[in-house]
Amino acid sequence: MGALLSMLRDLFSGRKLEMCIVGLENSGKTTLLNVLAQGEPMTTLPTVGLNLRKVKKDNVTMKVWDMGGQERFRSEWAVYAATSDVVLFVVDASDTEKISVAKKELHQLLDDKALEHKPLLVLLNKIDVQPTLSKTDAVKVLSLDYINSQRNPWVVIPISALHKTNVTEVVQWLIEKSGR
Ligand code: G3D
């Protein structure tokens, strides 16, 4: 944990970074946000009609959306996404039933012009739950090879937000994208 803390301090003290964390309900976005935000209070903005939570910590703004059944709010979502530097898409790797819905949501999302050139981090969460989806299988079932990496440079990291597994890699990626 020492390494993660010092990396977080590094990230939060230097550059500005806006990230949005999206994914289906229950995929683990809030858990991840809490790990990254280290106990900062969260603001909920219910007025826009989608479930948006926001944390601002020093120079880092983190915005979190649930994506279940909210297609009619997508234009609203795009307004916020447009101001984000990076997009984190959280997938529950233990929920094989919902993975096709996650795939559909991810690809619809990337169709939005507001997301052009935004780096994408696909997080396979809940790898502590067996059987879990391998990285190779995730690339297949989420059709990640169809994402134009010129348009959206993408990376997959398997994590457990609950157990803080591989969260250091996530922070490392965020630090890289913040321009260090
Ligand atoms: P959301 O914000 O995407 O809707 P949450 O998801 O962060 O609220 O998490 C949904 C549930 O998944 C929570 O369980 C949370 O503890 C659990 N969860 C999140 N990350 C992990 C993980 O890495 N491993 C496991 N096993 N569970 C995880 P509850 O029971 O509180 O609903």
Key structural traits:
nucleotide-binding, seven-stranded mixed β-sheet, P-loop_NTPase, alpha/beta, 6 helices, GTP binding, 180 residues, metal-binding, binds guanosine-3'-monophosphate-5'-diphosphate, Rossmann fold, 7 strands
CATH classification, class level: Alpha Beta
Structural class: alpha/beta
Overall pLDDT: 83
Percentage of residues in DSSP E strands: 15-25%
Superfamily (CATH H level) name: P-loop containing nucleotide triphosphate hydrolases
CATH fold-type name? Rossmann fold
Number of DSSP E strands: 7
Give a short account of the largest sheet.
Answer: 7 strands, mixed
Report the C-alpha radius of gyration, rounded.
Answer: 15 Å
**End-to-end Cα distance:** 22 Å
Topology pattern, helix = H, strand = E: HEHEEEHEHEHEH
Q: Helicity, in percent?
A: 25-40%
Q: What are the distinct ligands in this entry? A: guanosine-3'-monophosphate-5'-diphosphate
Using the alpha-carbon principal axes, give the shape.
globular
Domain unit count: 1
Describe this structure in words.
GTP binds at residues 23-30, 69, 125-128. Mg(2+) binds at residues 30, 47. It holds the Pfam family Arf. Belongs to the small GTPase superfamily. Arf family. Keywords: GTP-binding, Magnesium, Metal-binding, Nucleotide-binding. With 180 residues, this protein is an alpha/beta fold. The chain has a single domain, classed as Rossmann fold, CATH 3.40.50. The chain has six helices and seven strands; from the N terminus they run H-E-H-E-E-E-H-E-H-E-H-E-H. It has helices at residues 2-13, 29-37, 74-81, 99-111, 135-141, 167-177, and strands spanning 17-23, 43-45, 52-57, 60-65, 86-92, 120-125, 154-158. It has a seven-stranded mixed sheet with strand order 2-3-4-1-5-6-7, with helices on both faces. Helix 4 links the parallel strand 5 (86-92) and strand 6. Helix 1 packs parallel to helix 6 (167-177). The model has no long low-confidence stretch (mean pLDDT 83). Bound molecules: guanosine-3'-monophosphate-5'-diphosphate (G3D). The site of guanosine-3'-monophosphate-5'-diphosphate has 16 residues, from helix 2.
